[in-house]
Amino acid sequence: MYGKNKKRIMTNSSQVSYFTLTAYLDSGALKYLYFTVVAFLYIVIVTVNVLLIVVICVNRSLHEPMYMFLCSLFVNELYGLFPLLLLQILSDVHTVSAPLCFLQIFCVHTYGTAELANLAVMSYDRYLAICFPLQYHTRMSPCKVSMLIVLTWFSSFLVITVLISLSAPLQLCGNIINKVYCDNYSIVKLACSDTTVNNIYGLISSPLVILCPVSLILYTYMRILKICFSGSKHTRQKAVSTCTPHLASLLNFSFGCFFEILQSRFNMNSVPSMLRIFLSLYFLTCQPVFNPLMYGLTLSKISLTCKKLLCF
C-alpha cells in the first residue's frame, strides 16, 4: 500500500508546472509603495553600472587590467532578478512557472559564483601590482586579462548549468518555496526521487566555486599585508587606496551570502518576516549598488572621468 501511495505522489509530482513563493507578505495598498522603491533601486543599479561600464570602455586611459576586471564586475551587477521581483510585488498570487523558476535559479547562482570569482581575480591583480610592481605588466598581459575574464564567466556558467541539469529532472513532492525567489536548495528539498547525484555534485562543485576563490583571496591579502608591513610608506598608501574598495565589496558580499546560507539551512521562523526578506535579498540588491558607488567614489581615475562626462 505504501509503495503504491509513494508511486502516485511521484507521478503527480512530475506534473508540477509552477511553484508558489510563500515569503511574500500581504501588503495591500502598500505593494505600490514597495514596487516604487524597488523600481527606483533597479533604475539606480542599471544607471550607475552602465555609466561606469561606458566610462571604462570609452576611455583608453582606463584600459588597464584593474579597470577591465572592474568592468566585468559591473556587468555582473546588471545580472539579477529585479524584473521578476517587480512583477511578484504587484501580483496578488505569487506563483512562478517551472521554466521561469529554473531560469531564476540559473541567474541567481551564476550571479553569486561570478561575483566571487571576479573578486578573487581582482585580489590576484592587486597582489601582482603591489608585490611585483616592476613585473606587473609582464605578468598581467592583455592576453592574460582576457583569459581570466573569460575563465571567470565560463566556469560560473558551466558549474551552474550542470547543477540545473541535475535538479530539473527531479520528481518533486510539492511546489511550495518559502522564499521570495527560486533557488536550487529549495528545489532539492522538495524532491521525492533520489538526490545522491545532486549531493555528490554539490560536494565537488562547492570547493571549486567557494573554497578556491576564498583561498586565493586570503593568500593574496596575506602577501599584501606582509609587503605593507615591510615596505615603504608609498607602498602602504598604494595598497590602502586600491585594496580598500575591494575589501569593502568582499565583506559586503560575504555578509549577504552568510545570511542567505543561514536562512536556507536553518529554521528562521522566529525572525520577523520583513527582516528575513531583506536579508534574503541583501546580496542581490545591495551589492549592485554598493560596488559602483564604492569604486566610483574611491578610485580617482574613475571619479574624475565620470565628473567630466557628466559635466559635458
How would you describe the overall organization of this protein?
This protein is an all-alpha fold and 312 residues long. It has one domain: Rhodopsin 7-helix transmembrane proteins (Rhopdopsin 7-helix transmembrane proteins). The chain is 76% helix and 3% strand. It has 13 helices and 3 strands. Strands 2-1-3 form a 3-stranded mixed sheet. Helix 2 packs antiparallel against helix 4, helix 3 packs antiparallel against helix 5 and helix 3 runs antiparallel to helix 12. The protein is globular and about 60 Å long. The N terminus is likely disordered.
The low-confidence parts are: 1-14
Percentage of residues in DSSP E strands: under 5%
- Which range best describes the helical content: under 10%, 10-25%, 25-40%, 40-55%, 55-70% or over 70%? over 70%
The separation of the N and C termini measures 77 Å
Radius of gyration from CA coordinates: 22 Å
Largest sheet: 3 strands, mixed
Oligomer: single chain
Spatial shape: globular
Tell me the structural class: mainly alpha
The DSSP helix count reads: 13
Second-tier CATH architecture: Up-down Bundle
Q: CATH topology, which one?
A: Rhopdopsin 7-helix transmembrane proteins
CATH class: Mainly Alpha
Tell me, rounded to a whole number, the average pLDDT.
Answer: 84
Overall strand count: 3
User: What is the CATH homology-level superfamily?
Assistant: Rhodopsin 7-helix transmembrane proteins
Query: What string gives the helices and strands in order?
Result: HEHHHEHHHEHHHHHH
What is the number of independent domains?
A: 1
Strand order of the largest sheet: 2-1-3
